[in-house]
Amino acid sequence: MENVGGGLQMLLHGDGDAGGGGVMWVDVDAAPGALVLNFGHQMEVVSNGRLRSAEHRVVTSARGARTSLATFVWPEPGCTVAPAQELVLAAGEGPLYKPHSYGEFLGAYLAEGGVKEAAMAHLKH
Asked: Least buried of 73, 83, 95, 111, by fewest C-beta within 10 Å?
């Protein structure tokens, strides 16, 4: 992300952990020349909650240019998505999410009006 003006804001729930009480937007300053990656909901499942998908928005500024590139990569609807066994075993904990097809997640996400926490609740053990 080339960032001369403006920036990025992340949505935090409660005490900074997803699913908490209040909701607030927090400014995130990018270092010069920084590359910012936001992981999607299915990467949260594959990482067994270690990588958190983030709700975010861009803040623009009239002071200068900004370059952003949004790229969406997702599996076929019938593809099975589940926590990576290596991560589950290495952490000595059980999986947080049930195996599911990407189509099942997408159906729940759309049925829940695009609300991440409500859609992800369908996938939790």
From this structure: 73
Going by C-alpha positions, the residue among 27, 26, 30 that lies closest to residue 4 is 30
* Domains parsed from the chain with CATH numbers: 2-121 (2.60.120.330)
Beta bridge mates, 9: 27, 57
- Specify whether the CB–CB gap between 124 and 97 falls below 8 A: yes
Considering the entire predicted model, what is its pTM? 0.71
Q: What confidence tens digit (pLDDT) does each residue in 89-108 have?
A: 988 889 999 999 999 999 99
In this structure, are residues 44 and 58 in contact, taking their beta carbons and an 8 Å threshold?
A: no
* H runs (alpha helix) in 1-125: 41-46, 85-91, 102-111, 116-121
Report d(CA 108, CA 45) in Å as an integer: 15
DSSP-assigned beta bridge partners for residue 11:
25
pLDDT of residue 4: 38
